[in-house]
Amino acid sequence: KKDNPDFELVERLVKELDVPVIAEGRISTPEQARKMLDLGAYAVVVGGAITRPLEIAKKFIEVV
């Protein structure tokens, strides 16, 4: 299972499609959201990062 957003896929879709691309999935940090926008995503969905803050905090607790 991949833990990071699929930046490569979003970048490819933006280049190949003539429609707005909305990035969604495994985006859990502001930096990841910014990178998606920088790659050309029209918008970014960060549902789990906002609705499950304990899940995000757990990642930091495990590392620190």
UniProtKB/TrEMBL annotation:
Keyword Translocase on entry: no
Recorded metabolic or biological pathway in which this protein acts: Amino-sugar metabolism; N-acetylneuraminate degradation; D-fructose 6-phosphate from N-acetylneuraminate: step 3/5
Transmembrane segments: none
Catalysis performed (reactions): an N-acyl-D-glucosamine 6-phosphate = an N-acyl-D-mannosamine 6-phosphate
EC number in record: 5.1.3.9
The keyword Repeat appears for this protein: no
Biological processes annotated in GO: N-acetylmannosamine catabolic process; N-acetylneuraminate catabolic process
One GO MF term attached to the UniProt entry: N-acylglucosamine-6-phosphate 2-epimerase activity
InterPro entries registered for this protein in UniProt: Aldolase_TIM, NanE, RibuloseP-bd_barrel
Cellular component, GO annotation: cytosol
Top-level taxon: Bacteria
This protein's UniProt keywords: Carbohydrate metabolism, Isomerase
Family stated for the protein in its record: Belongs to the NanE family.
Function: Converts N-acetylmannosamine-6-phosphate (ManNAc-6-P) to N-acetylglucosamine-6-phosphate (GlcNAc-6-P).
Designated name of the protein: N-acylglucosamine-6-phosphate 2-epimerase
Phylogenetic placement of the source organism: Bacteria, Bacillati, Bacillota, Bacilli, Lactobacillales
